[in-house]
């Protein structure tokens, strides 16, 4: 029996704890179970978070194990080795695929029937592995994808044009990583094509400006990690946006990591693609009208991830 008011978080590091802190303030759930390989860490986080409950929404927050999470409607997996300065997300593959396999095995030992949301990096590869190893329905295994990257892109464009980010309509697709693809061809500001709006605001060098914005977005995590050792607030907000969609059955379109079966001419890999998301997980994977260079870049991104997945599945 699935309890729609219960969520579990696996991994109580910076990312997991930040997600827990954000969710306790939102009121989507009445129960939250924290799971960590180091049980005292989960207990400490549960105690600390619970201290703030008189000023938040009613909720029970406990440390537990996988059996305690089997009736949760959602398990968020953040556990894994952290990305170190100089490392790419794909450098984490070997370490984190082993950790993911162990977690999936533990979840499968219970009667869990809810949705798995993978946040650990490299998220596209690990989501692919979570689906393969779990055998759960495709609609119920999703990755946080490029929801964070898209937020970064919207924020940078809004700064460039001095316009509210909620009026910026754009998306990053493909890998959550170095081969991610900005979809400039459909980007608009309140319905006005991007280049037209740029000129309205006095900007002329569109190609150069957008390339710099893209590079800043792509490299954002590296810069943050170099300065403070880890990223967690932004991803916590991005994950909470996904969770809101699931908990409230919003049917919103978000660029989450999903399996492709011929869309965009791609098959056999998870990529971040705009997807209609509701209480049962994936509803519809959308095909955006990409231009030629965007299509080529997306296929290149898919090929890079396929090569990594092939290596993972040999081991």
Structure write-up:
It contains 10 helices and 14 strands. It has 315 residues and is α/β, with parallel strands linked by helices. Helix 3 (93-108) runs parallel beside helix 4. It starts with a strand and ends with a helix. It has 2 domains: 3-143, 3-Layer(aba) Sandwich (Rossmann fold); 147-314, Alpha-Beta Complex (L-2-Hydroxyisocaproate Dehydrogenase, Chain A, domain 2), CATH 3.90.110.10. The mean pLDDT is 94. The strands form 4 sheets. It has a 6-stranded parallel sheet. The chain has a 3-stranded antiparallel sheet with strand order 7-10-11.
CATH topology of the largest domain: L-2-Hydroxyisocaproate Dehydrogenase, Chain A, domain 2
Major sheet strand order: 3-2-1-4-5-6
Helix content: 40-55%
Q: What count of structural domains? A: 2
Give the count of helical stretches: 10
Structure in a nutshell:
It contains 10 helices and 14 strands.
Which key terms come to mind for this protein?
315 residues, alpha/beta, Rossmann fold, L-2-Hydroxyisocaproate Dehydrogenase, Chain A, domain 2, 2 domains, 6-stranded parallel β-sheet
Topology:
Elements: E1 3-10, H1 14-24, E2 31-35, H2 39-50, E3 60-63, E4 72-77, H3 93-108, E5 115-118, H4 123-134, E6 141-143, H5 147-161, E7 168-169, E8 172-173, E9 181-182, E10 188-189, E11 192-193, H6 194-200, H7 206-218, H8 220-228, H9 233-247, E12 252-261, E13 267-278, E14 281-285, H10 292-314
Parallel strand pairs: 1-2, 1-4, 2-3, 4-5, 5-6
Antiparallel strand pairs: 7-10, 8-9, 10-11, 12-13, 13-14
Helix pairs in contact: 1-9, 3-4, 5-7
């Amino acid at each position: 029996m699935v309890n729609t008011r219960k969520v579990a978080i696996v991994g109580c590091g910076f990312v997991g704890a930040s997600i827990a802190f954000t969710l306790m303030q939102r009121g989507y759930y009445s129960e939250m179970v924290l799971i960590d390989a180091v049980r005292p860490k989960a207990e400490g986080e549960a105690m600390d978070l619970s201290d703030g409950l008189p000023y938040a929404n009613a909720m029970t927050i406990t440390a537990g194990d996988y059996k305690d999470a089997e009736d949760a409607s959602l398990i968020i997996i953040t556990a894994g080795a952290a990305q170190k300065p100089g490392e790419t997300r794909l450098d984490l593959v070997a370490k984190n695929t082993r950790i993911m396999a162990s977690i999936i095995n533990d979840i499968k030992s219970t009667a869990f029937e809810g949705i798995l949301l993978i946040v650990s990096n490299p998220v596209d590869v690990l989501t692919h592995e979570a689906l393969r190893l779990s055998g759960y329905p495709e609609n119920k295994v999703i990755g946080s994808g490029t929801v964070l990257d898209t937020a970064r892109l919207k924020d940078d464009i809004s700064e460039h044009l001095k316009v509210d980010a909620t009026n910026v309509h754009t998306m990053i697709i493909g890998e959550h990583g170095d081969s991610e693809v900005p979809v400039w061809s459909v980007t608009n500001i309140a319905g006005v094509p991007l280049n037209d709006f740029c000129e309205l605001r006095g900007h002329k060098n569109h190609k150069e400006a957008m390339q710099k914005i893209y590079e800043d977005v792509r490299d954002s995590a590296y810069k943050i990690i170099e300065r403070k050792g880890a990223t967690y607030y932004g991803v916590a907000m991005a994950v909470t946006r996904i969770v809101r969609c699931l908990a409230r059955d919003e049917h919103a379109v978000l660029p989450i990591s999903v399996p492709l079966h011929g869309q965009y001419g791609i098959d056999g890999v998870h990529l971040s693609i705009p997807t209609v998301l509701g209480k049962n997980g994936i509803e519809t994977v959308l095909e955006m009208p990409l231009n030629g260079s965007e299509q080529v870049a997306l296929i290149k991104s898919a090929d890079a991830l396929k090569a990594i997945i092939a290596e993972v599945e040999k081991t």
